[in-house]
Amino acid sequence: MPADVILGAQWGDEGKGKIVDVLAEKYDVIIRYQGGSNAGHTVIDGDKKYILHLLPSGIINSGKMNIISHGVVIDLNALAAEIKELKSKGVKVTPQNLMISSNAAVVLPYHKAIDAARESGNAPNKIGTTGRGIGPAYMDKYSRGGVRIRDLFNAEVLRKKITDNLAEKNFLLEKFYGKEKLRRGAILKELQKHARFIKPFVKDTVDEINKYVKNGKKILFEGAQGALLDIDFGTFPFVTSSNPTIGGVMTGSGISHSRIKGVWGITKAYQTRVGNGPMPTEMKEPEHSRTREAGGEYGATTGRPRRCGWLDLVALKYVCELNGITNIILTKIDVLSIFGRIKAATHYIYKGKKISTFVADGNELLKCRPVYKVLKGWGSDVSSARTYTALPKEARDYIRFIEKYTGVKVSVVSVGPDREQILKKP
Questions:
Q1: Distance in angstroms (rounded) separating the CA atoms of residues 227 and 7
Q2: pTM of the full predicted structure?
């Protein structure tokens, strides 16, 4: 049975959690394939609101298997707290509906300490991370010295890795950043506690995923962050530390590319970004504040206000081509109801020339200026629409314009945060 992928087509915060929660009903297995607890996926079910950071968004649906694969870096404190929080709200989280890869890397206290030090007030070259240790954890993974989930159950290996890592990390913390060093005993004690808690969930998920494939189960992959934050294809250096793009599905889970069929790219009807880095279509005031408040644009993980801009079609087309996106899911079109005119960037002015290709280098993209197409707005609330044809003509014209520019069909439109506000486009 082919697998489908949902990935963010902007700089994150596109509404992936909500969409995965809705689509999960059609799938047997939901797999998170990259990122860490810096992700924030919000799911609203009636009067209940769930904010997920590490657990796949399918966990809210009973009867689904949810897998955190080895492409994810796991903060065990955050994971334990998330599981306990969901259980307190009546959500079942057991080894029957959750698996954790034995090969996933672990985020440790020294990763967070170094991350925070690098992003402190007087640190040079800040990129605006969440300070949750994600980048340093990936660095240890790729330098082959990081702690993996499987190491938690081998006392000798774990002690040696923590000892070796602390020798380097404490030197950096004390001598370079002027911070307090960390104690091995406290870290080991904490890890032993978490090892007991997560042991029932730990499996060889590569083997399990491919068993599901062979048995004809329907699989949905869920990414964190967005494609424009990809470490290789995003606006470097203002990027995340993993691959939210389509290649990350294979390397982060162990599934073959031949098993992937549908690639659903989620984009807002406008643009947002958290943290530093370029965003050519960033709005000016008062449009910026109006959009932020109408869209509730504050980070689910950090609460930081998001930067808002008009839809960047140059960037969206780049993401569609890069990932082989087969369908676009357009979220938050209801927010644009506040405007009588709507802009969408179709080109950039770069080094004095008009171009239609995306500039992926972050420092060079800062030099780009958008060229806009101005479309007529609809100026009326669309949140009560329950069919696509119930949308105003101007809203449907805007959607057709997106389709024509990107060459990809918009298959789903969201007009609000609730499940019933998902409209299928014929």
A1: 7
A2: 0.92
